[in-house]
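Why should sequence recovery work at all? Because a backbone constrains its sequence more than one might expect. Tight turns favour small or flexible residues, buried strands favour hydrophobic ones, and helices have their own preferences. The token representation captures these environments compactly. In the example below, the structure is given first.
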């Protein structure tokens, strides 16, 4: 089996474990939920994970292409900052806070890349240890156990960062405006910025916007509980494996 096929199988297997992990009744029985966090909200969270963090292999390949083209900007945000510094309006509006806003937006996008790196590490272990498809929950747990706990902790922290940013309504509003400005500015300069680079920002903006819509269903107090709940579920899964 080729590496690409192993990756596809692991993506599908891990998606199933995520889907199982975020079933409303199971979460309610294990952790308890306030009445305001209902089944529809939990279902939307699960779909958010499966759409933006653990998409299908075909969608993953499409998103990887977009984010790979944006990778240089994610690693060197000052290159994007230069575009923003050319706009008097946005400088006047956000001033010295602009680098922080841009950095937070890029941190939110890094969650997708973290998931990709996480899956590729599982592929390495599957090939090295001759663990073959199909990858059910038992095999997925076995693969995770071969990773270092620190590596998985970093992945969980990356996810937590995204949801903590989504919890900050004021910051999210600014991030969306700044990223949309970047998209518009880059679209006006097609000879300088590729379609893939613009697509990467568009996907990032979509991921942040959809997450914002999900959190907007909840009160500020319940948003805080939601972030803690997601972290607790992921850490308990980790503790179960190790």
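From this structural description, the recovered sequence reads:
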């Amino acid at each position: 089996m080729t590496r690409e096929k192993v990756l596809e199988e692991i993506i599908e297997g891990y998606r199933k474990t995520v889907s199982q992990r975020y079933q409303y009744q199971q979460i309610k029985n294990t952790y308890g939920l306030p009445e305001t966090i209902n089944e529809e909200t939990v279902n939307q969270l699960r779909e958010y994970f499966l759409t933006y963090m653990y998409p299908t292999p075909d969608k993953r390949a499409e998103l990887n292409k977009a984010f790979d083209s944006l990778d240089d900007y994610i690693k060197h945000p000052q290159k994007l900052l230069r575009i923003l510094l050319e706009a008097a309006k946005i400088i006047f509006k956000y001033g010295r806070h602009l680098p922080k806003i841009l950095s937070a937006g890029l941190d939110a996008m890094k969650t997708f890349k973290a998931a990709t790196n996480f899956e590729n590490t599982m592929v390495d272990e599957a090939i090295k240890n001759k663990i073959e498809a199909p990858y059910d929950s038992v095999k997925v747990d076995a693969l995770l156990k071969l990773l270092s706990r620190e590596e998985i902790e970093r992945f969980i922290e990356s996810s937590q960062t995204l949801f903590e940013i989504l919890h900050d309504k004021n910051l999210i509003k600014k991030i969306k405006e700044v990223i949309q400005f970047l998209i518009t500015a880059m679209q006006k300069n097609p000879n300088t910025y590729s379609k893939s680079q613009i697509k990467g920002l568009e996907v990032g903006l979509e991921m942040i916007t959809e997450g914002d819509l999900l959190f907007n269903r909840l009160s500020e107090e319940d948003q805080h509980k939601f972030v803690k709940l997601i972290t607790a579920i992921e850490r308990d899964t980790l503790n179960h494996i190790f």
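A few observations help interpret the result. Residues 98-128 form the longest helix (31 residues).
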